[in-house]
Amino acid sequence: MTATMVGPYTMLGITGGTSKETYLLDVSKDGRPVPRTTGATKDPHITGTAVTLPDGSALVIGGNSSGSETYGTPVYGTERWSPETGQWTSMANTPRQRQYHSVAALLPDGRVWSAGTSINGSNANEYNGAYFTPPYLYKQDGSGELAPRPQITNAPKTASWGERMTFTSPQAASIRKATLVRLSATTHQYDFSGAFVPAEVSVNGDQVGVDVPSNGNTVPAGSYMVFLIDSAGVPSKAAVVRIDPAADSTPRSTATASSQNGSQYPAWKGYDGDTSTLGVVTKSQAEPWWQIDFGRSRQVGSITIHNRTDTTTNRQRLRSAWVFASDDPFTSTSVSATRSQPGVTAKQLPSTVGSTVNVSLGRSARYVRIQIPRTDSLNLKEVVPTFSATPAPQLGLTKTSQTDSQVVVKVANTGTASGTIQSVTLPGAGWAQTAGPNAPFTVAAGRGRRR
Ligand SMILES: [Ca+2]
């Protein structure tokens, strides 16, 4: 018996017995896993190990055929399961037997490593390993030559749910899809860290955007191999990205400022991870500002401003500055107008500021601005936000009126997370009503009612 994840909510199970049955287990339904059979393997694979590959296919390696849960007559066959056909195809045999206490794992270079075995009551333990090169790494012309692979020349180190990761690839134009495979933690026939997630891609020049699903159940936190797969089905070597709900991959280039006083003090230096050296200096001007665009609304707990510290005068330039946070763009560069812009949180720094200043926000925000309410030069080293996972909007239902023929129901977002109710679909016969944003809607009484 072995199993491996071949989709966010789909496990491929190989019973391993002489029936050679395999099945897919859909665990997307709460508390109700749904099994269905898929193709049978050619050989039994008792104590074989299954491994998911970058394209969503899977291998089963080794095991035995003689009915023992641990050791028996070795099976050398390697088989590959296709998600398109549900059928298994024989691959090259393993050079050595791989039974109980053997391991196998997908590597970031797209190959599979298989190693070990202990044989009960004999001296035939296998202290060795081997690499399997899957067919997708070869040219499809039968020449036996390795195929050219798309390359990743730059990749983010971390990303959060719902975020777009941007990869640089000279072969970006040929990329058709991307997959995330969590780094392996394999023992005793199972990868206990297994997770496989296909992701949407969008290509712009040599940049490949890969969208991390917004749901942590779809892509559990952890370190993933991200493979970019080209039009010939050839995967890149993986970039390893840590999916962390508190991670921040906002490009520093999304920082802007009202002006720049000297070439060494551009706006991006307020968001480059360097908290030690002077970052941003604007010209002395009326109400100077610096701001960052996170690219989408994030749940921002607080921001810490790393202040200039060389002289008291320079440190106090941030005194009484305003911190603005908003889900929508700021519509004015005036302090008074921004303070009164709907949806904007405005917090003022004290009249004496230290080397770091923490400002609690505790709200969803895409834009954060720091602005001085007088003529001065704005100076700071770095702005560091703390993020948390964005909670989902929550629906609340209220019955507002009822007659013999109709019920008027209002659906609203009662949660702390921002979000607008665009439509509502009710299950049950004839009950399929939609409503505009946060609007009440009417359901004909009796239709679909259970009697
Ligand atoms: Ca900095």
UniProtKB/TrEMBL annotation:
It holds the Pfam family GO-like_E_set. SUPFAM superfamilies: E set domains (SSF81296), Galactose oxidase, central domain (SSF50965), Galactose-binding domain-like (SSF49785). This is DUF1929 domain-containing protein. Residues 245-268 are annotated as: Disordered. Coiled coil: none annotated. Residues 250-264 have a biased composition (Polar residues). Residues 236-370 form the F5/8 type C domain. It comes from the Bacteria.
